[in-house]
Automatic annotation (TrEMBL), chain A:
This is Molybdopterin synthase sulfur carrier subunit. It holds the Pfam family ThiS. HAMAP family: MOCS2A. SUPFAM superfamilies: MoaD/ThiS. Belongs to the MoaD family. MOCS2A subfamily. The keyword Nucleotide-binding applies. Heterotetramer; composed of 2 small (MOCS2A) and 2 large (MOCS2B) subunits.
TrEMBL record, chain B:
It is found in: Cytoplasm. The lineage of its organism: Eukaryota, Viridiplantae, Chlorophyta, core chlorophytes, Trebouxiophyceae. SUPFAM superfamilies: Molybdopterin synthase subunit MoaE. Belongs to the MoaE family. MOCS2B subfamily. Its EC number is 2.8.1.12. This is Molybdopterin synthase catalytic subunit. Catalytic subunit of the molybdopterin synthase complex, a complex that catalyzes the conversion of precursor Z into molybdopterin. Acts by mediating the incorporation of 2 sulfur atoms from thiocarboxylated MOCS2A into precursor Z to generate a dithiolene group. It comes from Elliptochloris bilobata.
Length: 83, 155
């Protein structure tokens, strides 16, 4: 299945792109996606401790392994600083 | 721009924010109070001279979270209307990056909801600012950002 991944702020600068598409095995979870992201963009390791993922515009808890589906949108969310 | 069934307006925009647009939106003949908040770029931070702030948003999710925030405010206080707008891109000194307007029959509700809304926005809405100062740039982090805890607390 294909999952769209979006990067913002520092994660976007480190990844060097604002979005990408990851090909994952059926049944993959948000944790599998994170592992696959870190293989593709190893430099992201330096910030993953402070980032969370959002799945289809809802935050996931830090260690949450949520089942993904084809066409899902996952965003890498560094510490926010709006306002 | 997104509006809910309750009188609510939320938007993430590129262009300069005009307070009147949001005051007009929350204007209601039954409202005796309109409270507003404008968050404005300040020219210094920790002794550094700030030139501007560069804002970036996960716009669709930011609008969704701002809408949820307005709906929660409507549930918590007897409000006539609420509007929240956040700007993205370069925001120069003295310009507003965020504007909130809330109306209610009496002042207390509007004032409390307005103060609560900016705190919630800073803690939960996926928007980032990079501080551009003389001699460097840095991504800021809100001290009260709690997006990590948010998902866990909803379980």
């Amino acid at each position: 299945m294909k999952v769209n991944v979006l990067f913002f702020a520092r994660s976007r600068e480190i990844a060097g792109v604002s979005e990408t598409v990851l090909e994952l095995k059926a049944g993959a979870t948000s944790q599998d996606l994170l592992e696959s992201l870190l293989r593709e963009y190893p430099l992201l390791k330096e910030i993953t401790g402070s980032c969370v993922l959002a799945l289809n515009q809802e935050y996931l808890a830090q260690d949450e392994a949520k089942a993904l589906r084809d066409g899902d949108e996952v965003a890498v969310i560094p510490p926010i600083s709006g306002g | 721009m997104a509006s809910g069934a309750k009188q609510t307006l939320v938007e993430v925009v590129q262009e300069p924010l005009k307070l009147e647009r949001y005051v007009d939106f929350v204007q209601d003949d039954g409202a005796g109070a309109i409270a507003t908040f404008s968050g404005v770029t300040r020219d210094n931070f920790d002794g550094k001279r700030v030139v501007r702030l560069d804002y970036e948003a996960y716009a669709p999710m930011a609008e969704k979270k701002m809408l949820e925030l307005c709906q929660a405010a409507h549930e918590r206080w007897a409000l006539k209307a609420a509007a929240i707008a956040h700007r993205v891109g370069e925001v120069c000194i003295g310009e507003a990056s965020v504007v909130i307007a809330v109306s209610s029959a009496h002042r207390r509700e509007a004032l409390e909801a307005c103060a609560w809304a900016i705190d919630e926005l800073k803690a939960t809405v996926p928007i980032w600012k990079k501080e551009v100062y003389e001699g460097g740039k840095v991504w800021k982090e809100n001290a009260d950002a709690r997006q990590a805890m948010l998902a866990a607390s909803q379980k």
